[in-house]
Amino acid sequence: MAFHRRCNDQGACIIVAKIAGKNERLVGGYNPIGWFDSGGQYSAAPDAFLFSIENKDLNNAKISRVLPYYASKAIFQEASCTVNFGAPDLLISSHCNKNISSFFNTTSFYEYNIIIGNFKVIDYEVFQIIKKENSRERRRLT
Q1: Beta-carbon count within 10 A of 119 CB
Q2: Displacement of CA 114 from its chain's centroid (Å)
Q3: Quick check: 105 pLDDT over 70?
Q4: SS3 of 42, please?
Q5: Cα angle at 111 between 131 and 12, to 5 degrees?
Q6: Residue range 54-82: average pLDDT?
Q7: Domain count, the chain
Q8: I need a labelling partner for 110 at 20 to 30 A (CA). Which of 52, 71, 90, 121 fits?
Q9: Nearest-CA neighbor of 115 among 124, 125, 106?
């Protein structure tokens, strides 16, 4: 899968996905540990979070942080899907632009529901986060 070929073992990243619908909505998440092949297991990431921005209105943006009790299950590392945060609280399927099999689940491991239900992804981008002294640099991975 192209996502994992480009993004595995690259470290911390943010994924931003534009989803189909009547409103322009961006959803995504921050993975502070990065993606890697683990054969389908959870990874601890206490700084992980999900977000949603609708109609380019940053004043109504939603952020949902992983709950401390579930920080050990913040990220699910699985090659059969593109992105899996939580139980899954956010899952972006491997064919996300061809069907509506990507979804937000009801709140499980993260604070709030960003949205609920299945959706189709129009496009997504992944940005590598490189921590530097007192700053962050980003590099586009996909």
Answers
A1: 20
A2: 11
A3: no
A4: strand
A5: 20
A6: 90
A7: 1
A8: 121
A9: 106
